[in-house]
């Protein structure tokens, strides 16, 4: 199922979704992604044309330019903690009835308003490409992407949207995501860190091994060091902890952990892959006095290949990870005492 936002001029004239210029472009993108329009049920969040072609006219938000200097109309009602026009709420209810009748495995949410209505998340450029799901049992999967009308205004985003549609094509066979069985070691004990790093050092004695490395820093110090050695195995080694002002480890423990990290990350058969490695390298050299054996910088590689696209780690993950959910909002946990 494909869900757009509202009618444009041509859609209003014909009473059908995605039949104007944006619909024509959507058909082209679907075909390039391996999807046929005839295989999809198309609808809109609101089957009507908004005032001035501005969907924002139906959702009161003082931060939006449309509402600058305007008061919220008295007939607006509360939906997801936001005041919306009655026609918007009626559209949401009608869309839910369509979903119940069609019973799609997956919904492609084109644009920010369908994303918000179906999942409660805001910001299409932040959440596009994510593996999401509607609330409730046996609910369809949701993959948000950029609305084709926005593609016509920002042509450089077309390849990104097609990538999202290819992801939807792969996920359209069932209502259940095939999530990887991640094995993440978080807040490890000293023994777990020693055993894990020792095992990786032993492996490096007989085979070349890629290690993905990422630091988180705070107040000029290394807060934690993340390591990954497969698509599902990773460990976060903390050094700072809000509950332990003196540090996560004792002095002897931290010294031994850093020694093991040196032996691993500087091993001649270890290849370190990182994002903006220059940043991490200067912190490691300043605090731990060694430089890892860096072999690939994903930020440099992305910018070298696709200089017109973003090179942030979350954007790259939205393109290249088999299973991806936007994680940037989780940073609030740190500010809140996590």
Largest sheet: 6 strands, mixed
The count of β-strands is 13
- Determine the CATH topology of the largest domain: Uracil-DNA Glycosylase, subunit E
CATH arch. level architecture of the largest domain: 3-Layer(aba) Sandwich
The best one-word shape is elongated
Compute the separation of the termini in Å: 38 Å
Q: CATH H-level name of the largest domain... which superfamily?
A: Uracil-DNA glycosylase-like domain
> Could you name the ranges where pLDDT drops below 50 across 5 or more consecutive residues?
none
Q: How many separate domains make up the residues?
A: 2
The topology string of helices and strands comes to: EHHEEEHEHHEEHHEHEEEHEHEHHH
Continuous helix count:
13
Mean pLDDT: 94
Characterization of this structure:
This protein is 38% helix and 19% strand. The chain has a six-stranded mixed β-sheet. By secondary structure, the chain is α/β, with parallel strands linked by helices. α8 runs parallel beside α9. The chain folds into two domains: 170 residues, 3-Layer(aba) Sandwich (Uracil-DNA Glycosylase, subunit E), CATH 3.40.470; 153 residues, Ribonuclease H-like superfamily/Ribonuclease H (Nucleotidyltransferase, domain 5), CATH 3.30.420.10. The mean pLDDT is 94.
């Amino acid at each position: 199922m494909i869900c757009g936002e509202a009618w444009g001029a041509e859609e209003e004239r014909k009473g059908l979704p995605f039949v104007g210029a944006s619909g024509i472009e959507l058909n082209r993108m679907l075909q390039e992604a391996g999807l046929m329009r005839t295989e999809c049920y198309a609808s809109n969040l609101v089957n009507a044309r908004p005032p001035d072609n501005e969907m924002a006219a139906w959702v009161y938000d003082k931060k939006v330019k449309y509402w600058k200097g305007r008061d919220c109309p008295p007939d607006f009602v509360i939906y997801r903690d936001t005041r919306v026009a009655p026609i918007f709420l009626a559209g949401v209810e009608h869309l839910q009835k369509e979903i119940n009748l069609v019973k799609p495995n997956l919904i492609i949410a084109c644009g920010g308003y369908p994303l918000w209505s179906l999942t409660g998340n805001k910001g299409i450029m932040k959440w596009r490409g994510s593996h999401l799901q509607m609330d409730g049992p046996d609910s369809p999967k949701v993959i948000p992407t950029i609305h084709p009308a926005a593609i016509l205004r920002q042509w450089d985003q077309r390849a990104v949207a097609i990538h999202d549609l290819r992801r939807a094509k792969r996920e359209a066979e069932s209502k259940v995501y095939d999530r990887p069985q991640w094995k993440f070691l978080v807040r490890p004990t000293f023994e777990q860190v020693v055993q894990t790093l020792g095992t990786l050092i032993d492996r490096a004695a007989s085979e070349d091994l890629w290690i993905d490395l990422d630091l988180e820093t705070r107040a000029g110090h290394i807060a934690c060091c993340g390591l990954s050695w497969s698509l599902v195995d990773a460990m976060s080694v903390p050094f700072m902890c809000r509950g332990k002002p003196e540090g996560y480890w004792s002095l002897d423990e931290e010294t031994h952990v850093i020694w093991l990290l040196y032996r691993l990350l500087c091993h001649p058969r270890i290849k370190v892959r990182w994002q903006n490695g220059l940043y991490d390298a200067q912190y490691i050299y300043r605090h731990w006095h060694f430089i890892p054996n860096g072999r690939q910088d994903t930020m440099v590689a992305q910018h070298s290949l696709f200089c017109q696209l973003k090179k942030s780690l979350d954007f790259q993950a939205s393109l290249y990870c088999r299973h991806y959910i936007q994680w940037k909002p989780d940073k609030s946990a740190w500010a809140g005492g996590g």
